[in-house]
Amino acid sequence: MEAARKLEARYTYADYCAWPNDKRWELIDGKAYALAAPSLGHQRASGEVFRQLSNFLLGKPCQVFSAPCDVRLDADGDDGDVVQPDILVVCDSKKLEDGKSVVGAPDLIVEVLSPSTATHDLIRKLLLYQRSGVREYWVADIDSKLMYINVLRDGRYSGSAYSHDNAAVPVEVLDGCTINLVKVFEGL
């Protein structure tokens, strides 16, 4: 099945929960998108970002999660936005209370691009995350070895890009945290 393939019906989180677990899906504006299995390079980059964030957050109140982890961005509305970011950080423990999913916008989301999902991650998800109030959205392009960083300011993302040779890129929403992109893109 093609990654990020759109089905035509409108779905909610209740529909999503009833689907078989043999495939990963996301809902954006009630439309279903199938997700492809990540490549090994995708897994390496994602795992390294997770490791660095996890090490930084030891003993701190924020928590880091990796896919698959359901994030319900509009649980107070029609519940038609459910995503599974590669990495996410949540600093408000109330968003974790249902024990099954994150309910509300994470503070930080990191996505690793795949060729089949680039448009999905760079356009559709960027607009969704901006609208939903995700404070910081990072996108790792493992082919070009660039990290695109979007920080929410006055309801809109302000973006910048960092190359693979940056050893200390600051995470704005986590005071004192930096990500070593040399390590993230090493061996890719």
Description:
The chain has helices at residues 13-18, 40-57, 118-132, 181-185, and strands at 24-28, 31-35, 63-66, 71-72, 82-83, 87-90, 102-103, 108-112, 136-141, 146-153, 156-163, 169-170, 178-179. With 188 residues, the protein is α+β, with helices and mostly antiparallel strands. The protein has a single domain (39-185), classed as tt1808, chain A. The strands form four sheets. It has a six-stranded mixed beta sheet with strand order 3-6-8-9-10-11, with helices on both faces. A three-stranded mixed beta sheet has the order 5-4-7, with no helix packed on it. The two termini are 26 Å apart. The model has no long low-confidence stretch (mean pLDDT 92).
List key phrases describing it.
tt1808, chain A; 6-stranded mixed beta sheet; single chain; alpha+beta; 3-stranded mixed beta sheet; 188 residues; 13 strands
Would you summarize the structure shown here?
The chain has 188 residues and is an alpha+beta fold. It is 23% helix and 29% strand.
- Helix fraction, binned, reads 10-25%
Summed over residues and divided by their number, the pLDDT gives a mean of 92
- Radius of gyration based on Cα positions: 16 Å
Total domain modules: 1
CATH architecture type: Alpha-Beta Complex
CATH class term: Alpha Beta
Topology:
Elements: H1 13-18, E1 24-28, E2 31-35, H2 40-57, E3 63-66, E4 71-72, E5 82-83, E6 87-90, E7 102-103, E8 108-112, H3 118-132, E9 136-141, E10 146-153, E11 156-163, E12 169-170, E13 178-179, H4 181-185
Parallel strand pairs: 4-7, 8-9
Antiparallel strand pairs: 1-2, 3-6, 4-5, 6-8, 9-10, 10-11, 12-13
